[in-house]
Structure formats: structure tokens, C-alpha cells
Write a structure and sequence with these properties.
This protein is of the alpha/beta class. The chain folds into two domains: about 325 residues, FAD/NAD(P)-binding domain (3-Layer(bba) Sandwich), CATH 3.50.50.60; about 150 residues, Flavocytochrome C3, Chain A, domain 1 (Alpha-Beta Complex). The protein is about 30% helix and about 20% strand. The chain is built from 16 helices and 19 strands. Strands 1, 2, 7, 8, 9, 10, 18 and 19 form an eight-stranded mixed β-sheet that branches. A four-stranded mixed β-sheet has the order 3-6-5-4. The protein has a four-stranded antiparallel β-sheet with strand order 13-14-16-15, with helices on one face. A hairpin with a 5-residue loop joins strand 9 and strand 10. The chain is globular.
């Protein structure tokens, strides 16, 4: 939209479209320092281009009415669609791609009979949320996280129940065939927190969908959408990109979406409002540069996974929902925003073996979660590190599996092919270092650091970095191995790319009911944000305190928000 186009001028132009369309499009003038800002920028004139709202769309071919519009059909949007439809609302679901998009199979879920049946102990939700608050520097919203934690178990049971006949794996019970059966398994990969030993409080409580051919949880997501459609209350529009929100006074009352195959526009007028579930903005360079500059500055070094495209081949995850919400008067939470950027340490995963940087120096307490590894690797010389271990790595890795931050499960194939996936090996430490082809200064430093590490292991106390004693294994049994992780971009075992960026995880400020807030932290009527469009959950780095937390929050808030909207007065 051009600067200075007033709401009145737009309404005059829209009058010929009929009463249903004349409610208005959000943000008819650029937001300036007088009307609000995005995360601290003062105006559209001196900030990035996304502060300037687009031109009003007036060439609308069709207008339809509904109770609710859900924008985006990932796990959050599908859950919201089903939940609202089951409450009796007429829902139009708008999805930019040709089908719903699913990612991980992991969901944090606890404090239900099903979770207990699967061997997951009850979790003190206040304790869990307080740990998350510590890891986000208390910049997250306690109320948003607590509402999720208190309801994630019941939400997961409901979501899993969307797939008829799903099996539940019980400790000591029947073992299911993952190649042919759909079932829920317990990813209980962490030991209880040991005060005075561990460095982060990591919680158990992760359930995973196991599907043939490693389909992730997509079959379960599709089953949930089918459940929603079976109510007769859902009109799902695919290949449809939401472009602008519609407002009636201060209230968000609908959305205009574009058919990406024809370019035609449809306006949905929604009596109960709009739920934004469009995901993050990992494919929007401008937003990355503004809110997560450390990812943008090094984006050529990341492997970006889970990228989706629409029918035109254009990447999704552009921040559509966050931007539309901002133009409508919503507040984008202050940065630094959160990216799910992992250290992905190859065949051995995130295991607590000795780590040296490109200068040959030990640089971290290796008994850490993968998000911390990712951050640390980026800040090393040449973003390059070495993982060092000896012939006892298999048994050592087994010990680390129950410790903090290790996802390692050393397979027989890994053991049999160690010569293929390691960067160097040697019958002595000197030979190992020589085979790494580093210069003399680095070689000398490496040898000294290994000798020092062995001394600390023998003493049973890591005086240098405070590593857990149970994961201090001296390098003493030949052959000795090293993996060189060079953040070079592109997924490849040969390149040993150590960094993956999945999604961004910050967005519009909301209250605990997912209602979007304006710059004064007041409710913006009729607008909701869930999934990676919702703020208040993670800031800075994604904490590995509870595996599957992100998916669980998205699904849970879809479940809760659909119900909440249905129970509001029109």
C-alpha cells in the first residue's frame, strides 16, 4: 500500500464489492512510530521494508462466509481446524501448499494415563516451565508455556486418537514391527537430572509416532484433517496463500487469500476471527537479518532442512502470518528471536567425546545438548571442530546415551564402517594428529590438550570445563579416531556438516489463550497465533530441555485455541 492511503479512501473503493467485502483490509496506512513498531524499529521509513504494508487488494473474485479461518495446515493448523470443527464451528482452512506439511514425529507429552502406561513419570509442570524460563533468559512468557505444559498430555491423546487403530508401546509389552505398523513409542533418552553433576535439567516425556517407511507423523496429521472434514464443518483450500487480514473496526474479521495457481483472490469473512498458523520465516532473508542476524550472517554455512515449496516452486516459511498480524496491529516480540539450529555431529550424534577446535584447543564442556554445540561451533575458528575418541567408543557411547545431551545410538552398521566415516585414525595419538594434516603449531596444541584431558580423566574431575565425571573417558586404547566437522554448507557425510537450521520459533506476542496482543499488550480482537507464528515460547536458542517441546506446543495450542474460539461470544 502506498503511504498515506487512508482507511476511508479504501472503503470508498471497496464499496462496490458489497457489504461482505467492505469490512476493510488490515493496516491501511504504514505503521510508524505513532502507530507501533516491530521489535523496536521506530518507523517504516527508517526500518526494513516489511514495516511497509502492501497495497490493498481490491480485485476480489469471490467472498465466502465462515465462523473461523485457520491459515496454515501444519501440525498447529490441522489441530486447530479439527478442534474448532468438532466444537461446531464452520471453518475455512487455507494452506499455501498442495497438502498439509509435517516435520518431526516427536511430541512432549506427560501427565496422562497413556503417558504413565508408557513408562513416563508425571512431571511438575511449574518446575519444567521454570527451567525453560531460565534457558530463555526469562524473556519467554511463563503463562503461555504453563498453559501448554498443563494440557499437552490430554492434547496428545486427542491428536493420537485421530488415527484409528494406533498402537501404544508399553514397557515390557509387545514389540511392534516399525516397517508395517503405526504405533506410539517412548523416546525416553535422558536420565533424571543429577544435582551437582549435570549442567542442565533435562526432562523425560517424549513420545514419537513410528510409521512405516519413516513417514514421520504425516499419516497421523492427515488422519486428523480427515477427522475434521468428517464433521462437515471444514472447507479446506490448498494452493492458497493468505495475503492480507480483514478488519471491521479494531476487530480482525477475515482474510484475503490468493490461489497461487491462478492468481485470483478470495475473501473469507469470519465471525469468530482468524487463527494464524503459517509457521516461521526461515526462508525470508530480510526477517532473518533483522531478528536473527547470527543465522543470516552465516546462512551459507547451515544446512536448511524441511524446506517446503508451493505450486510455483516458491519457498514457504516466509513469515506470512507474522507480517499480516503485524500489519493488523499485532506486536512482534522483541529479539533476538529463536531459530532451531542444531549441532548435528554425524554418526555419533551429540556425544560427550573430546572436542577440539581448529586451533587444537578444547573449547567446551562436551556434556552439553545439541543446541549449545551448534552455537559453540559457529564461534570457533573457521567454524571447524574435531571429535576425538578411541577404540572403546561403542561402550563409551552406550554410557553417554543415558546422560545429558546425547542422542547417540551406535548401530552395528556404524561400528562396521568406522573407517569410512571418520576423518582420520592412527595407532598412536601422534599418528592420529599427523593424519589430520594440521600445521605444526596446531599439532602441538592438540597433543598437549589430549594429554591434559587424559590427566583430568584419570583424576576423575574435569577442573577445566566441569564435564560430568561419568563421561570422562581417557584416550588410551588404539586405534584412535577423529572426525573433522567443517561447517561447509550442504548435507553430506563426507563434508561432516555440523549445523542444521530447521525453523524459526518466534513471532507475534500472545496471551495464554493465543490471542494476539497489540504494541500495548492489549488483546487484538479476533486474531490468534499458534505454532511457529506464536511468540512467548522460545527466544535466543531452542532449549533441549524436553525433546519434542516445539511440536507439542504447536499441537496443544491448536487443540486449545479451537476450543477457546468456539466458546467465545460472537
Amino acid at each position: 500500500m502506498t503511504k498515506g492511503l487512508s482507511r476511508r479512501a479504501f472503503l470508498v473503493g471497496a464499496g462496490s464489492l458489497g457489504a461482505g467485502l467492505a469490512a476493510g483490509v488490515a493496516g491501511c496506512a504504514p505503521r510508524t512510530s505513532e502507530t507501533g513498531s516491530a521489535g523496536g524499529s521506530s518507523s517504516a521509513d527508517d526500518g526494513p521494508s516489511f514495516l511497509n504494508e502492501p497495497e490493498v487488494i481490491t480485485d476480489i473474485k469471490e467472498a465466502i462466509d465462515a465462523d473461523l479461518v485457520v491459515v496454515g495446515l501444519g501440525v498447529a493448523g490441522v489441530s486447530a481446524t479439527r478442534s474448532a470443527a468438532e466444537e461446531g464451528l464452520k471453518v475455512v482452512a487455507v494452506e499455501r501448499c498442495a497438502e498439509p506439511s509435517a516435520r518431526s514425529s516427536q511430541f512432549a507429552a506427560f501427565n496422562t494415563d497413556n503417558a504413565r502406561m508408557m513408562g513416563i513419570d508425571d512431571v511438575d509442570t511449574a518446575e519444567l516451565v521454570n527451567e525453560l524460563m531460565i534457558q530463555t533468559g526469562h524473556r519467554a512468557d511463563f503463562r503461555v508455556l504453563k498453559n501448554w505444559a498443563d494440557h499437552c498430555g490430554e492434547a496428545f491423546d486427542w491428536y493420537a486418537g485421530g488415527y484409528d487403530g494406533l498402537l501404544w508401546q508399553v514397557p515390557g509389552g509387545e514389540t511392534y514391527d516399525q516397517s508395517t505398523q503405526y504405533f506410539v513409542g517412548n523416546n525416553n533418552i535422558y536420565a533424571p537430572f543429577r544435582y551437582g553433576v549435570d549442567h542442565e535439567h533435562v526432562f523425560t516425556g517424549t513420545l514419537s509416532f513410528r510409521t512405516p517407511e519413516k513417514q514421520g507423523h504425516k499419516p497421523i496429521m492427515l488422519a486428523n484433517l480427515e477427522k475434521a472434514q468428517d464433521t462437515g464443518n471444514v472447507d479446506a483450500r490448498f494452493n492458497s496463500r493468505a495475503r492480507q487480514l480483514v478488519k471491521d473496526g479494531d476487530r480482525v474479521s477475515g482474510v484475503i487469500f490468493e490461489d497461487v495457481t491462478t492468481g485470483e483472490f478470495t475473501q473469507v469473512n469470519a465471525k469468530r476471527g482468524v487463527i494464524l498458523a503459517t509457521g516461521g520465516y526461515v526462508k525470508n532473508d530480510e526477517l532473518l537479518r533483522y531478528y536473527i542476524p547470527w543465522v543470516y550472517d552465516m546462512k551459507d554455512k547451515f544446512t536448511f532442512t524441511y524446506a517446503h515449496t508451493d505450486a510455483n516452486g516458491d519457498f514457504t516459511d516466509q513469515g506470512d502470518g507474522m507480517l499480516m498480524g503485524y500489519w493488523a496491529g499485532g506486536h512482534i516480540e522483541e529479539g533476538p528471536h529463536c531459530a532451531m539450529a542444531h549441532g548435528d555431529l554425524g554418526k555419533l550424534g551429540v556425544a560427550a567425546f573430546l572436542q577440539l577446535n581448529a586451533n587444537g584447543e578444547r573449547y567446551i564442556n562436551e556434556d552439553m545438548t545439541n543446541d549449545h554445540f551448534g552455537s559453540a561451533i559457529l564461534r570457533q575458528p573457521d567454524a571447524t571442530v574435531y571429535q576425538i575418541f578411541d577404540a572403546n567408543y561403542v561402550e563409551q557411547a552406550k554410557s553417554m546415551q543415558s546422560g545429558l545431551g546425547s542422542y547417540t545410538k551406535v548401530s552395528q552398521e556404524t561400528m562396521d564402517t568406522v573407517d569410512e566415516w571418520t576423518s582420520a585414525q592412527g595407532s598412536t595419538i601422534d599418528e592420529l594428529i599427523q593424519n589430520l594434516n594440521v600445521d605444526a603449531t596446531v599439532a602441538s596444541t592438540m597433543k598437549a590438550e589430549i594429554e591434559r584431558y587424559n590427566e583430568l580423566c584419570d583424576a576423575g574431575k574435569d577442573e577445566d570445563f566441569g564435564k560430568t565425571a561419568e563421561c570422562m573417558f581417557a584416550l588410551e586404547t588404539a586405534p584412535f579416531y577423529a572426525i573433522r566437522y567443517e561447517v561447509s554448507g550442504g548435507p553430506s557425510d563426507e563434508a561432516h556438516n555440523a549445523l542444521r537450521c530447521l525453523v524459526t520459533m518466534s513471532g507475534l506476542s500472545t496471551n495464554k489463550n493465543a490471542q494476539v496482543l497489540d504494541e500495548n499488550m492489549h488483546v487484538l480482537p479476533g486474531l490468534y497465533a499458534i505454532g511457529n507464528t506464536q511468540g512467548g515460547r522460545f527466544l535466543g536458542d531452542y532449549p533441549a530441555t524436553l525433546a519434542g517441546a516445539s511440536h507439542s506446543i504447536a499441537m496443544t495450542y491448536g487443540y486449545l485455541t479451537g476450543k477457546f474460539v468456539a466458546r467465545q461470544d460472537q
